[in-house]
Amino acid sequence: MDKLLWMHCFVRAVETGSFSAVARELQIGQPNVSRHIASLEKLLDTRLLHRSTRRLATTPEGQSYYAQARHALDVIAQAESDARGEKNPHGLLRVSCAESLGTEVVMGAMPAFLARYPDVEVELRLSDGYIDLVAEGVDIALRGGALKDSALRARRVGTSERICVASTAYIAQHGRPAVPSDLLQHECLIYTLLGSGSASGRWPFSSGDVHVSGRLRLNSLEGIRRAVLRDMGIGYLPSWMLAAELERGEVTALLVDYAAAGTPLNALYSAERLLPRRASAFIEFMSGVFANTPGLDGVSLV
């Protein structure tokens, strides 16, 4: 009887929503995963999961057990690490962040982080889209904006300033908007992941939101940046992405007097998991990096 294995199978089944995913992760057969969870349910004399051909769902008892089992497994892992004398951060750290932030800022900091923590490995997942941290086994996600998911916790690591911006060539041809409502007469570059449907074209200003429109829609902030530099329209972007171009005068920040407050840049992690030392070390390290990155340090570039 290996109750820890049964517990681990159940916890990861809840997090991934799939017996086959757990089987691949643990390198055991799928029937074994099903059998281990059934053995756990028999031991506890209660049903933990509702099974169907399409999905797994926890019962109320299963959800309660999951929260305690997840914490117990994290505590055991930490205890084993301490017993082996592994006081320094170690192991594999999975981090998710937006592609632009990852390639331009986080990747640049990786050599120093890995040199400081030689026993830590980092798997960096770059995507502008939403991911389920728990289901995908991600330790930390670096994301901008207020925390909306109660299943997560957030630690602020920076402040991201967003600005309306256009190239000097675009402004020369189409003019400069004087007030936010003037954007309705301009070609705006729409970032589709800013929201769903019409919400993706809602740009915030201190005087209120403006619903903008444009013929080019992209799901990548880097794509928006490149479209701005190619004189294709007005973008709404984190200022750090255009710090060099702003300094050289290749682009111009617009509607500065109406700019909304900066948004928090947070390190997100599961509220139900014990944060490993390697994750805490990464958060502290990146806080220092962002504090020294123009546009992410809370100081306006415009």
Automatic annotation (TrEMBL):
<dbReference type="GO" id="GO:0003677">
    <property type="term" value="F:DNA binding"/>
</dbReference>
<dbReference type="InterPro" id="IPR058163">
    <property type="entry name" value="LysR-type_TF_proteobact-type"/>
</dbReference>
<dbReference type="Pfam" id="PF03466">
    <property type="entry name" value="LysR_substrate"/>
</dbReference>
<dbReference type="InterPro" id="IPR036390">
    <property type="entry name" value="WH_DNA-bd_sf"/>
</dbReference>
<protein>
    <submittedName>
        <fullName>LysR family transcriptional regulator</fullName>
    </submittedName>
</protein>
<dbReference type="InterPro" id="IPR000847">
    <property type="entry name" value="LysR_HTH_N"/>
</dbReference>
<keyword id="KW-0804">Transcription</keyword>
<keyword id="KW-0238">DNA-binding</keyword>
<keyword id="KW-0805">Transcription regulation</keyword>
<feature type="domain" description="HTH lysR-type">
    <location>
        <begin position="1"/>
        <end position="59"/>
    </location>
</feature>
<comment type="similarity">
    <text>Belongs to the LysR transcriptional regulatory family.</text>
</comment>
<dbReference type="Pfam" id="PF00126">
    <property type="entry name" value="HTH_1"/>
</dbReference>
<dbReference type="InterPro" id="IPR036388">
    <property type="entry name" value="WH-like_DNA-bd_sf"/>
</dbReference>
<dbReference type="GO" id="GO:0003700">
    <property type="term" value="F:DNA-binding transcription factor activity"/>
</dbReference>
<dbReference type="InterPro" id="IPR005119">
    <property type="entry name" value="LysR_subst-bd"/>
</dbReference>
